[in-house]
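Work Package 4 report. The design task specified in the project plan requires that, given a folded chain encoded as structure tokens, an amino acid be chosen for each position. We show below one input record used in the internal validation round.
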């Protein structure tokens, strides 16, 4: 008998291309948090690499977690306040979620530093609100928590209810998320958005399973070990 799986899906740049809205929100917010010139960030290729490889540590000090929390909270508050900034779901992602629902419990788990209640309209816009079993955010834990804290809490909950670590899968475009998954002893699979194709090389170097298109259903199923 096939065991039920727990699928923890990242939102931004994994299920939805939110790059445009994120770019606008960061560019409008970051001047309040840095003394550095941000001209380099106006080039989208520089912005994407800074986002994935440095997490804007070159602009907002990583040694000040309170300031970093406020920065990201302000970025996502700016983003969520304007529906014109919403992204678009990646092609075939709804079909994949339907498949995953038939195999287990599907949760959207986002690292956004805002309450998940503030994202209901956005998730409805994407067609996710009633498609997944639940959605949670790092902001639900309160200030200064990290995505790792959220993942740890969720994983601990399911382990206590009888699931094993092998039953839980984290799917994300974030290198940090996948590193967290490894530390928390659950499976991780990387999603490679075409806007950040350089992630493929990084995921390969780390020996991670990866997904490059949700439309390649047989590959997704195989990558997640669901066959």
């Amino acid at each position: 008998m096939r065991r039920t799986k727990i699928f923890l899906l990242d939102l931004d740049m994994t299920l939805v291309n939110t790059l445009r809205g994120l770019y606008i929100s960061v560019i409008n917010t970051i001047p309040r948090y840095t003394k550095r010139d941000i001209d380099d960030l106006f080039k989208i290729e520089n912005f994407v690499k800074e986002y994935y490889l440095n997490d804007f540590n070159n602009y907002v000090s990583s040694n000040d977690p309170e300031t970093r929390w406020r920065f990201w909270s302000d970025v996502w508050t700016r983003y969520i306040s304007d529906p014109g900034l919403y992204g678009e779901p990646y092609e075939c992602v709804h079909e994949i979620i339907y498949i995953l629902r038939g195999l287990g419990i599907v949760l959207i788990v986002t690292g956004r530093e805002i309450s998940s209640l503030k994202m209901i309209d956005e998730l409805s816009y994407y067609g996710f609100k009633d498609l997944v079993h639940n959605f949670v955010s790092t902001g639900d834990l309160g200030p200064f928590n990290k995505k790792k804290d959220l993942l740890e809490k969720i994983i601990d909950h399911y382990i206590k209810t009888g699931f094993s670590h092998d039953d839980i899968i984290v799917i994300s475009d974030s290198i940090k998320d996948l590193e967290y998954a490894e530390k928390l002893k659950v499976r991780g699979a990387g999603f490679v958005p075409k806007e950040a194709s350089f992630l493929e090389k990084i995921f390969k170097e780390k020996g991670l399973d990866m997904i490059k298109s949700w439309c390649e259903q047989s590959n997704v199923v195989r990558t997640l070990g669901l066959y």
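The beta strands are 5-9, 16-17, 88-89, 104-110, 134-137, 168-172, 187-191, 209-211. Validation will be extended to a larger panel in the next phase.
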